[in-house]
Amino acid sequence: MRRVLATAGHVDHGKSTLVRALTGRDPDRLSEERDRGLTIELGYAWTRLPGGVEIAFVDVPGHQRFVGTMLSGLGPAPAVVFVVAADQGWQAQSSEHLAAVQALGITDGLLVITRCDLADDDRIATVQADAGRRLAAAGLDVPAVEVSATKGAGLDDLRTALADLAARLPEPDPAGAVRLWCDRAFSVSGAGTVVTGTLGAGTVRTGDRLLLLDRGTTREVTVRGLHSQDAARESVGPVSRTAVNLRRVDDVSRSAVLLTPHAWEVAPTVDVRLTEVGGSHATGSHDLKEMRTPEQATLHVGSVDAPVHVRPLGDDFARLSAGVDLPWRVGDRAILRDPGSRRLWAVRILDVDPLPLTRRGGASRRAEALSAGDLAATRLRSRSAERLDTFERLGLLVPSTAVRQGDWRIDPAAMEAWRGRLVEAVRAHHSADRLSAGMPVAEAARALALPDHLPADLGPDLVRGLVAGSDLTIADGRVLDPRASGLGPAEAGVAALEERLREAPFIAPERGDLDDLGLGPAELAAAARLGRLLRLPDDVVLLPSGPARAMRLLSGLEQPFTLSAARQALGTTRRVAVPLLEHLDSRGWTRRVDGSLREVVR
């Protein structure tokens, strides 16, 4: 079992000393840190506890000047070791670190009272009670251990408490998607670029192809090698500190992130719920207005700190817009920080890459929609349609009411609205042209007036789905309403032609006769589509019953028969007999025996 824990607490309360005493490793890597006795960069050390549990520590700086670095180390950790010195008690940075822990939703860990050799029992009890009360009020009701790291007192109790903590933490998913926030990036001679981070879920293997999202740009990279706890590995699973050697990659920032391809929604803008933590201010985004929080603040997520524009939506909702893409899932937690006032807000992601607010009152309507609670339905309703794989990337279940359309899921209200537009457009098309074979599918798709954010290629497939639930039909690539179809002014001419053919079934009218009846190509096509006439090549027009009547006559001939014999039996001309026989051949009712003979297929 492996677990990664972050330290937290006021500067000079002994966090690094505690980690050093537990692990035998100095988390302060920089000579400046050792000279000043002050943690500046994130430090890492690990140890094996009794029972075989491996614990790695992310040691964060406690000084106010390095709050951003502290947040990048705290963010990926599932639990915290909160340190308070017995001789100094609770301090200003203790409160700021606790606010960050609370904002990130961390609810488990340990309270460690350090430097107990510098305080008497009453002082230790007072500090522990005060710190425990503050942590519990922030949702961190955790066990407390008293130690003196320099004397070694209490370390065995602390190791036992750490093993208990590791055992009760949720088991991470080794098959989950990888999102490795990189908190260090450096070059190794002969090996290339190495990035380090805390792997909270998923498994990374040598040879894996991952996406590197760095300063808003994405590229595919290959894992050349892996190290964890100073040992080369073929694979690293959660929860682990890991160093990833990337093949042929240069110039990676310390705020990059490695991702499983196609597993995360990448966008610069998110809609969130904000809750202020720490201090004496009331919670909720109404404070954003009352306290005049700057429109610009800093968003801390994983190891990234990005400037964002904050747009209040109403109640405790806001829209955060960063200048770069970031990888998200609905439900992610982050921290919003005003560097000037040092106020913090807990951020919970409710929607990713939301649509622009274009109409008056759009912000308040958006807040009302987000407050409904069903975030999957809210997203689908706002966008009308969404791809299935997007729900999977966002970690949302597809609403049970969604309408399936291939790879898309459609909001039922949008589906009905589009069906109404389609029916109206098709009926208008028929009204304008009574002889039309229907509206082409592509034209019908344009009539739906789909929102701009939906791709154009969704339209034709959507039309087919809409037709399935209506009185419309599709034939030969056209959408038509059978009830609206008719012959209009051509009805009289078609009726006269039908009467004529009933009397002489195989005496097809000449082109001039058709013209006299007012039957041009459009009128004949409409009559054929309605099943009133049969059109054969060379302007030969018969009744639809003509082929069956011809077969009865041809069956009475001596088999096989010639074209001339067929013509005489039908009482017609060569102009009619040739296309009629070819039509019978195509239906498999007759067949050629040789170049001049045919026979009826029995």
TrEMBL record:
Q: Can you name the source organism?
A: Janibacter indicus
Question: Which biological process annotations from GO are given for this protein?
Answer: selenocysteine incorporation
Q: Does the keyword GTP-binding apply?
A: yes
> From what superkingdom does this record's organism come?
Bacteria
Q: Which PANTHER family match?
A: ELONGATION FACTOR TU, MITOCHONDRIAL, ELONGATION FACTOR TU-RELATED
Any one of the GO CC terms = cytosol
**Tr-type G domain spans which residues?**
1-171
Q: InterPro entries, from UniProt? A: EF-Tu_GTPase, P-loop_NTPase, SelB_WHD4, T_Tr_GTP-bd_dom, Transl_B-barrel_sf, WH-like_DNA-bd_sf, WH_DNA-bd_sf
Q: What start and end residues bound the annotated signal peptide? A: none
The record ties this protein, via Gene3D superfamilies, to: P-loop containing nucleotide triphosphate hydrolases, Translation factors, Winged helix-like DNA-binding domain superfamily/Winged helix DNA-binding domain
Q: Which GO-annotated molecular functions does the record name?
A: GTP binding; GTPase activity; RNA binding; translation elongation factor activity
Keywords (alphabetical) are: Elongation factor, GTP-binding, Nucleotide-binding, Protein biosynthesis
The answer to whether UniProt assigns keyword Metal-binding to this entry is no
The UniProt transmembrane annotation reads: none
Mind telling me what this protein is named? Translation elongation factor
